[in-house]
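Input C-alpha cells:
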C-alpha cells in the first residue's frame, strides 16, 4: 500500500502530530526538511490553480505553519513572483526561525501586521497564520486580518488548515479564513470534512510530502471518507421476495408527503416490496400518485401488527407525529424487534422514551434531533460532531447518521465514516425522508446496518449533487429519485469496504 492509499483515512490532530514525530525521530527526516517539502507542496498547488499570477501576499504566524509560509515565499521569489510577507510577530521559534532566516537571506522583507496595516494589492493571499494546534478564537488583531482577507475578493490558498478552523472538529470558535484551496500535509485532518469546515476549506488537497508507507504502519485512522460504491447486479432469476419488504410507518394528518417520499425512495433504492402504514385520508393520494406502493390505513397497534409481521425492515418516523396515534405505532414497531430505520418524530419520541436497541437499527438525526437524544444543546452537538455521533451510537446501541454538511456515520464500537458529497441545495424539506427510505431498502436487501448506512448516505448525497447540476437553489427531494436509481446501477460492486 502506498502513501496515496491513505488519502481516504482521516486523523485527529494528535494522531497527525504522532505521525510527524515518527517521521522525524524514527525515519530520520529532519523537521526543517518536512517544512521545506510542505512549502514545495504549497507552491505546486498555487501553480496548478493560479498558473498566471505574478503577485502574492503570504501571512505567517509564529509556529511551524508560519515556517511553511516563509519557505513558500522564498521559493516563490526564486521563481520570479513578487511577494509581500506579513508576520504576526518579530520572532519565530524552532524550525520556523530557520525558515524565516532563509526567507530574509533570499532578499525577502518581513512586514509586521497590526490592525492599522492595509492589505497589499495582490492576486492571491497565502494563509500560513495558524496550523492544527489552534483551538481558540484568534487574537483580535489576527481576527481583523482574517476578516479583511475574507472580504478582499482575492482567492486564498491555506497551508495545512484554514486559520481559525479547529482541525479536529470542524468548528470555528471565532474568525476563520475562507480558503479557495486548502493543501493539507502528511495526513488528512478529520475536521476539514464536516460541519462549518464546508464553508472554509474550498478545494481540499492532500500532499503526503513523499513520506514512505512505513510511516503509517501500525497506525489506525480515526475515521474514513466514504468512497463510491453500489450493489452487485441482480441474479437473472431474482424475484421481488429476494429484495426485501419495507414497511414505512408515518404520514399523520397533513404529512402524507413525508411518508410517500420515504416509501418511494425505498422503491427506487431496490426494495422488492414497499408498504405504507398511514392515516386513512392518505390512501387515495398515495395510490393515485404511486400505485406501486401498498398503502394501508391503520388506526392503531392492532391494525399495524400484521403489516409489521410481513415486513423485512421498518422505516419509522416520516410524518409520524408525536400524538397518541404516532406514539402507539412507534411503540409497536420498536417492540417488534424487526430491523428498523428511525427518523424525524421517531427520534423525537425516542428522546422522550429512551431505549437501547437489541434489533439492527439505524438512527438518522439532524443536529437538533441529536441534541434532544443526548440531552444537550444543538450548539454543543456542532462543537464536536464526531463526539456527538459516537455518543449517540454507544448510548442507543445503533448505527447513527448525524446529518448535515459532511454527514457522519458511527456504530456502537466507535467506527466512523464521513460523507464527502452533498450540497446546500439539499437543505430543504423531505431530504431526510428520502434517506430513511434508501437505508431501509438497503437493509431489506441484506446489507448490515453499517453497510446500509454508509452506502445509503453516499448514494443520497451523490444523487443530490447530480440533481443540483441544474442549480442548488430550488432543489427538491423528489429531484433525487432518478439520479438515485442511476447511481445505484452505475458502478460495479466492490464490497462495502468500511
Amino acid at each position: 500500500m502506498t502513501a496515496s492509499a491513505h488519502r481516504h483515512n482521516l486523523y485527529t490532530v494528535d494522531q497527525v502530530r504522532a505521525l510527524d514525530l515518527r517521521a522525524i525521530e524514527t525515519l530520520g527526516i529532519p523537521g526543517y526538511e518536512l517544512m521545506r517539502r510542505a512549502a514545495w507542496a504549497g507552491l505546486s498547488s498555487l501553480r496548478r490553480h493560479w498558473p498566471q499570477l505574478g503577485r502574492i501576499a503570504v501571512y505567517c504566524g509564529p509556529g511551524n505553519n508560519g515556517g511553511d509560509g516563509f519557505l513558500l515565499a522564498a521559493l516563490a521569489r526564486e521563481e520570479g513572483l513578487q511577494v509581500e510577507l506579513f508576520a504576526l510577530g518579530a520572532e519565530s521559534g524552532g524550525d520556523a526561525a530557520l525558515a524565516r532566516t532563509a526567507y530574509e537571506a533570499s532578499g525577502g522583507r518581513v512586514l509586521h501586521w497590526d490592525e492599522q496595516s492595509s492589505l497589499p494589492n495582490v492576486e492571491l493571499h497565502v494563509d500560513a497564520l495558524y496550523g492544527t494546534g489552534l483551538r481558540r478564537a484568534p487574537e483580535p488583531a489576527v481576527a481583523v486580518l482574517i476578516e479583511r482577507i475574507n472580504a478582499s475578493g482575492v482567492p486564498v490558498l491555506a497551508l495545512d488548515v484554514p486559520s481559525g478552523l479547529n482541525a479536529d472538529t470542524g468548528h470555528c470558535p471565532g474568525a476563520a479564513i475562507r480558503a479557495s484551496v486548502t493543501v493539507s500535509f502528511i495526513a488528512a485532518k478529520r475536521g476539514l470534512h464536516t460541519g462549518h469546515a464546508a464553508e472554509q476549506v474550498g478545494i481540499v488537497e492532500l500532499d503526503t510530502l513523499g513520506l514512505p508507507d512505513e510511516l503509517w504502519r501500525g497506525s489506525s485512522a480515526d475515521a474514513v471518507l466514504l468512497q463510491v460504491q453500489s450493489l452487485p447486479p441482480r441474479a437473472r432469476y431474482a424475484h421481488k421476495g429476494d429484495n426485501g419488504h419495507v414497511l414505512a410507518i408515518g404520514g399523520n394528518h397533513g404529512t402524507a408527503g413525508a411518508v410517500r417520499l420515504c416509501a418511494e425512495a425505498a422503491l427506487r433504492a431496490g426494495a422488492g416490496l414497499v408498504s405504507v402504514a398511514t392515516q386513512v385520508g392518505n390512501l387515495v393520494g398515495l395510490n393515485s400518485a404511486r400505485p406501486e406502493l401498498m398503502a394501508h390505513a391503520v388506526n392503531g397497534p392492532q391494525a399495524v401488527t400484521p403489516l409489521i409481521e410481513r415486513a423485512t425492515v421498518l422505516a419509522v418516523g416520516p410524518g409520524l407525529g408525536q400524538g397518541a396515534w404516532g406514539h402507539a405505532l412507534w411503540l409497536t414497531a420498536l417492540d417488534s424487534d424487526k430491523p428498523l430505520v428511525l427518523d424525524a418524530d421517531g427520534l423525537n419520541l425516542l428522546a422522550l422514551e429512551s431505549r437501547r436497541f437489541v434489533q439492527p437499527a439505524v438512527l438518522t438525526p439532524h443536529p437538533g434531533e441529536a441534541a434532544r437524544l443526548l440531552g444537550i444543546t444543538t450548539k454543543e452537538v456542532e462543537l464536536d460532531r464526531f463526539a456527538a455521533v459516537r455518543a449517540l451510537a454507544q448510548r442507543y446501541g445503533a448505527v447513527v447518521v448525524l446529518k448535515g454538511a459532511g454527514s457522519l456515520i458511527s456504530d456502537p464500537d466507535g467506527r466512523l465514516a464521513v460523507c464527502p458529497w452533498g450540497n446546500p441545495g439539499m437543505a430543504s424539506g423531505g431530504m431526510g425522508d428520502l434517506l430513511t427510505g434508501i437505508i431501509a431498502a438497503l437493509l431489506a436487501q441484506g446489507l448490515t446496518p453499517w453497510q446500509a448506512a454508509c452506502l445509503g448516505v453516499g448514494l443520497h448525497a451523490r444523487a443530490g449533487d447530480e440533481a443540483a447540476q441544474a442549480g442548488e437553489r430550488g432543489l427538491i427531494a423528489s429531484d433525487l429519485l432518478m439520479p438515485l436509481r442511476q447511481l445505484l446501477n452505475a458502478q460495479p460492486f466492490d464490497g462495502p469496504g468500511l
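Residues 240-490 form a domain with the UDP-N-acetylmuramoyl-L-alanine:D-glutamate ligase fold (CATH 3.40.1190.20). The chain has two domains: 3-221, 240-490.
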